[in-house]
Design a protein that fits this description.
The complex is a heterodimer.
Chain A lengths: L36 H15 L7 E5 L3 H4 L9 E4 L5 H11 L4 E7 H5 L3 H9 L4 E7 L2 E2 L5 E2 L22 H7 L4 E6 L3 H13 L3 E7 L7
Parallel strand pairs in A: 1-2, 1-3, 3-4, 4-8, 7-8
Antiparallel strand pairs in A: 5-6
Chain B lengths: L28 E5 L5 E6 L9 H13 L2 E9 L6 H5 L11 H4 L3 H11 L1
The chains are: A alpha/beta, B alpha+beta.
Chain lengths: ~220, ~120
């Protein structure tokens, strides 16, 4: 089945200071499960970029691998984008930022991408204080590979398959503070009144800005 | 051939669910139910929270974890931070706008720099 995102929008949509309506900041139609928290976060990013009067061509969105890392396709389709290797988004962001520091760098990652395979990259991009926004869409499981527990799943929580997680969970926000991050926030995907201002503040921060967003997984939680 | 065929995945149905939204005041706690019926307990930072106190942020996070809560809001902020370019002392212009002469000043300049270390 093919889905086509309708392009019709209300003709009286409000324009921001640049003359863009909010649909200019949208992306293609999401292929994530209906009700996924990641889509709520994408919507918050769109809202924040629109309200911040961001010129889309002045922003680069980067990601790794996972459900979370698919989301840059669903927002800011007029921006630069790089879907990198699993857990290696921070390296790509570092290289791009060193070459062109005039862009806004927006990294999107997941709990598997940042807390497991990309943990080494994550801790070093924090301590290097690369000027970027780093959002982790944290659902505590590997949605793309049938819902195994991720490293941020609570100790004792039960996966959809019924197994109980015997391991301690990694607290990414606490770790970021420990490593010297200078902007650390935490939110829930469905609380837009909190998440949108946090994203706007993160984009204004002069260093590494980390937001850990708890995001419900429709299928495996 | 069929003797070697093994099912490695099952076809499953993903029901259409609704987005979970919530809204709660600063300083209050909110229990949010997930799609499967499990729940998480969110605790929003108080309005008078001082995000520039790193030690308090770490203590508050430990405390919340012990209570089984997830602390939300701007936990820590240092607005006076210096980013990687400042640490590396790169030039003001983006490196990708520099020309070859600026990026590679030549052998004579390199010899001068090397001589400066001797």
């Amino acid at each position: 089945m093919t889905y086509i995102k309708p392009k019709f929008r209300h003709p009286n949509l409000k324009k921001n200071d640049l003359g863009y309506t909010i649909d200019y900041y949208e992306g293609s139609l999401s292929t994530l499960c209906a009700g996924c928290g990641h889509d709520s976060i994408s919507a918050a990013i769109i809202q924040a970029s629109y309200e911040m009067n961001i010129q889309p061509h002045r922003l680069a969105k980067l990601s790794g691998i996972g459900c979370s890392s698919k989301t840059p396709a669903y927002f800011l389709s007029n921006s630069h984008g790089f879907n990198s290797v699993h857990g290696r988004m921070p390296s790509v962001a570092t290289g791009a930022n060193l070459a062109n520091k005039d862009l806004i760098y927006f990294g999107v990652s997941g709990d598997g991408d940042s807390a497991s395979i990309g943990m080494g990259q994550f801790v070093h991009v924090v301590r290097r204080n690369l000027k970027m926004v780093y959002i982790v869409m944290n659902n505590g499981c590997y949605g793309l590979t049938k819902g195994q527990d991720s490293a941020t799943a609570d100790n004792g929580s039960k996966s959809k398959a019924g197994s109980v997680n015997p391991y301690e969970s990694i607290d990414l926000a606490g770790l970021a503070i420990e490593l010297g991050a200078t902007f650390v926030a935490q939110s829930f995907s469905g609380d837009k009144s909190q998440l949108v201002p946090l994203i706007k503040a993160a984009m204004n921060h002069p260093g590494f800005a980390f937001i850990n967003v708890i995001s419900p997984c429709v299928t495996f939680q | 051939v069929r003797e070697h065929v093994e099912a490695t995945a099952t076809v499953d149905f993903v029901p259409q669910m609704k987005e979970i939204t919530t809204s709660y005041d600063h300083g209050s706690s909110k229990k949010v139910t997930m799609h499967d019926g499990s729940f998480i307990q969110l605790q929003k930072l108080a309005k008078d929270w001082d995000p520039q106190d790193r030690q308090s942020a770490m203590n508050a996070m430990h405390h919340a974890k012990q209570k089984g809560e997830i602390l939300t809001g701007l936990l820590y902020l240092n607005p006076e931070t210096k980013d990687l370019h400042h640490i590396l002392k790169t030039v003001a212009e983006p490196l990708n706008t520099l020309n070859e002469e600026q990026l590679c000043p030549g052998n004579n300049t390199l010899q001068e720099i090397n001589a400066g270390f001797r």
